[in-house]
Amino acid sequence: FNLACCHEVVRNSLFLAGEIGGNDFNHAFFIRKNIEEVKTYGPYELIGLGARTLIVPGNFPIGCSASYLTIYETVDKNQYGCLKWLTKFAEYYHHELQSELDKLRGLYPRANIIYADYYNAAFTLYRDPTKFGFTDLKVCCGMGGPYNYNTTADCGNPGVSACDDPSKHIGWDNVHLTEAAYRIIAEGLMKGPYCLPQINTSCLMNVSSGYFNS
């Protein structure tokens, strides 16, 4: 064991610290905790052991997921079909996390802390799905209901099937996005405006999908 070598590896590595809080929030909302209780789930330790470069992602626009749209069925939706109150919570978390990262940058000026804006990178797809070749909020793998999701029959259960063309859907199942959606989000993070500060693209391989050609 070479401690000096280990420190060198840590110092020169890129750490993806997150998606921070996603499952913590999902669990709380699935058991119907109220929004004020969930807002207190905020303490994080993001830097340790000499790490110099970290990418800290925010959360996805959870108000657009099939799970929440099914569990919290309501007419109170925005023009894109997403739940208003959960969209506002995701925006709250987005701003609070950025504020905490600013504090960390002050405490650790030698660290390069990059915020990955999952929220806006993904919400772009929900705002204008047809621009990227997607259809609606129905998920690819599921069964029943307006979003092809049944709370008693998840993707992978007997009798639950997947669609013929996942690339036409933003959501793979009630929680996860499709490979096509993740690819577009990743390009928006690596080559677009959704990282703060932006990633130095000179060290990235050429990435080409449809994000900046649309």
TrEMBL record:
Classification via InterPro entries: GDSL, SGNH_hydro_sf
Keywords carried by this UniProt record: Glycoprotein
A Pfam family per the record: Lipase_GDSL
Gene3D superfamilies, alphabetized: SGNH hydrolase
UniProt entry tagged with the keyword Protein transport: no
SUPFAM superfamilies named in the record: SGNH hydrolase
MF terms (GO), sorted A to Z: hydrolase activity, acting on ester bonds
Family label: Belongs to the 'GDSL' lipolytic enzyme family.
Name used for this protein in its record: Sinapine esterase
Taxon lineage: Eukaryota, Viridiplantae, Streptophyta, Embryophyta, Tracheophyta
